[in-house]
Automatic annotation (TrEMBL):
Keyword Lipoprotein: yes
Organism classification: Bacteria, Pseudomonadati, Bacteroidota, Bacteroidia, Bacteroidales
Range of residues in the leader sequence: 1-23
This protein's UniProt keywords: Cell outer membrane, Lipoprotein, Membrane, Palmitate, Signal
Family recorded in the similarity comment: Belongs to the bacteroidetes fimbrillin superfamily. FimB/Mfa2 family.
Pfam families: Mfa2
InterPro entries named in the record: FimB/Mfa2/Mfa3 (IPR014941)
Organism: Phocaeicola sartorii
Protein name according to UniProt: FimB/Mfa2 family fimbrial subunit
UniProt KW Lipoprotein keyword: yes
Compartments, record wording: Cell outer membrane
Length: 348
């Protein structure tokens, strides 16, 4: 009987060892048997651009090139990949990335190509650091004595995305992570309207916006930069000569307008960009206003969000100013994106 019990104990021990070794062979987290098991995981990144006023993902319609950068816990670049063209517009598009399991700081700059208005330094995996991944706006320098930096062409669209700590694990055979994008470029459309029969000639006015927002850090915060002077990339003028009254009779409305469109970089509440319109013939300013302060006049009434969120979500602004016969701004009201703002009781 003693011999039988000893054999039973030996058999039970052998069975437990076999079960332990068997589980090690199929576990990707075990040291034993790793070469015998397919532990590969497919990692993919989805890019989403719904940080806009429609709250709808416009990535596939608007973004034509995207670059992903992955940094380790020490802030060193370990991986980067760029994809562009029609593939970005395909339904369900995601970028396949070859990363080892671990935690990463993900940065995305989207919209950069050979024809873009922005550029980032060349970075090298294993050598470059997070702080090197700055994005700079192209600019020209005037021949004036002060060498003013200026932008006089239409800016290409630019987006930024960041996930400060993303874990890629072996918990499943595939993993998809999302990087949300913020658009950094804006179109300002300025309309000068004259309703007293005086023609507004667009070439008689100089439109400028000044700001120091041409250098962005890896986290999309603005870095110290020189002052940029933005000029229109498009100008036109027009108007209507006749209108129709409610009784069907024609009346003289004679509305004359001048339009200038300017693209600018990211607008932030901490900066003080200024919109200035000057009469070239007299040299006198038609108006000079703090741009962000005026753009935010409609935010409190129309949107439940912070000032910065509004500036980041909105990427087009239409501003209509009314002129008197001497081509000076009538400082009683302004139309901003279909909102009529009256200054009767406002201290501007």
């Amino acid at each position: 009987m003693k011999t039988v019990k000893t054999f039973a104990r030996q058999f039970s021990f052998s069975l437990m060892m076999a079960m332990t070794l068997g589980s090690a062979v199929v576990s990707c987290d075990s040291i034993l048997g790793e070469e015998e098991v397919d532990c590969s995981v497919e990692y993919r990144v989805k890019f989403k651009y719904d940080y806009n006023m429609k709250y709808a993902d416009a990535f596939s319609r608007e973004v034509e090139t995207v670059t992903l950068y992955a940094f380790d816990d020490n802030g060193k670049l370990v991986y980067q990949k760029t994809e562009e063209g029609d593939v970005l517009g395909e339904e369900g598009y995601t970028m396949k990335v070859d990363l080892e399991p671990g935690d990463y700081h993900l940065i995305t700059w989207a919209g950069l190509n050979n024809e873009a208005s922005f550029s980032v330094p060349l970075v090298t995996a294993g050598e470059s650091s997070l702080d090197e991944l700055q994005c700079k706006m192209d600019r020209l320098y005037s021949r004036a004595a002060d060498g003013t930096a200026m932008v006089n062409s239409k800016l290409s669209s630019l987006w930024h995305g960041e996930v400060t700590k993303q874990s890629f694990s072996r918990a499943a055979t595939s993993q998809v992570v999302t990087v949300p994008l913020v658009k950094n470029t804006n179109t300002i459309r300025v309309i000068l309207q004259q309703m007293d029969g005086v023609t507004v000639e667009v070439d008689k006015f100089e439109f400028t916006i000044t700001d120091d927002n041409g250098l962005m850090n890896y986290d999309n915060k603005l870095l110290e930069d020189e002052t940029l002077t933005y000029y229109p990339y498009y100008r036109t003028q027009g108007g209507t000569d006749m209108g129709t009254r409610a009784d069907g009779e024609e009346e003289d409305s004679n509305i004359s307008v001048a339009i200038a469109q300017i693209t600018v970089g990211r607008l932030v509440v901490e900066n003080n960009p200024r919109l200035t319109i000057t009469n070239k013939e007299t040299g006198e300013p038609v108006l000079s206003i703090p741009l962000v302060k005026y753009l935010l006049l409609t935010e409190a009434e129309g949107h439940d969000m912070t000032n910065q969120e509004y500036l980041d979500r909105q990427d087009e602004y239409n501003m209509t100013f009314f002129l008197d016969e001497s081509m000076k701004w009538i400082q009683t009201s302004i139309i901003i994106n279909d909102w009529v703002v009256r200054f009767n009781d406002m201290d501007m």
